[in-house]
Amino acid sequence: RFSGIDFEIIIIDDGSPDGTQEVAQQLEKIYGSDKILFLCPPGTAYIHGMKFATGNFIVIMDADLSHHPKFIPEFIRKQKEGNFDIVSGTRYKGNGGVYGWDLKRKLISRGANFLTQVLLRPGASDLTGSFRLYRKEVLQKLMEKCVSKGYVFQMEMIVRARQMGFTIGEVPISFVDRVYGESKLGGNEIVSFLKGLLTLFATT
């Protein structure tokens, strides 16, 4: 129970073919809809999640266990320690790392982060990861400012946060490649990322 922290779990399924719906519905039956809320909306998951979140902080993570829940208490401790607006999981700092990726995926991820560091100097070590804790009102303000989609979105969230003066802490995490389903990363996503990076470079 995270040492008395009151929490809820909101599962948002955007049409994933990996059985997310069935698992989420079973969890809702076991734990009750006051703790497990399952949504299946079209469109941006973050926006729908924020509408139903009742807490002061929101932790966003992938539901395929690529992001392990064991790091959540560390996110909470880090936030309290520095009163941060955002705590971001990082694969590229301390004892963080990536497991299960082939060389191509590692090179793409490292290359994307390197280019971002050189062009934008965001002050955070992992720009493309999505395992993060946000102060709720900060997430709402960032969502109003961010216009990117796909992989660029995570990067823009951090860049805009720095631009708006929000504070960011980092927690090293171990990222494990998904066991079920497939990554959506392809040539089109890489081109979109590069376009988004250049757009941010020109506008920030």
Q: Please, could you describe this protein's structure?
A:
Residues 6-142 form the Glycosyltransferase 2-like domain. Component of the dolichol-phosphate mannose (DPM) synthase complex. Pathway: Protein modification; protein glycosylation. It is an enzyme of class 2 (transferase). This protein is an alpha/beta fold. It has 2 domains: 1-55, no CATH class; 60-203, Alpha-Beta Complex (Spore Coat Polysaccharide Biosynthesis Protein SpsA, Chain A), CATH 3.90.550.10. Helices cover 44% and strands 16% of the residues. The chain has helices at residues 20-31, 45-52, 72-82, 103-120, 136-145, 151-163, 187-203, and strands spanning 9-12, 36-39, 57-60, 86-90, 97-99, 132-135, 168-172, 174-176. A 4-stranded mixed sheet has the order 3-6-4-7. The chain has a two-stranded parallel ribbon with strand order 1-2. α1 links the parallel β1 (9-12) and β2 (36-39).
SSE blueprint:
Elements: E1 9-12, H1 20-31, E2 36-39, H2 45-52, E3 57-60, H3 72-82, E4 86-90, E5 97-99, H4 103-120, E6 132-135, H5 136-145, H6 151-163, E7 168-172, E8 174-176, H7 187-203
Parallel strand pairs: 1-2, 4-7, 5-8
Antiparallel strand pairs: 3-6, 4-6
Helix pairs in contact: 4-7, 6-7
Give a short overview:
By secondary structure, this protein is an alpha/beta fold. Helix content is 44%, strand content 16%.
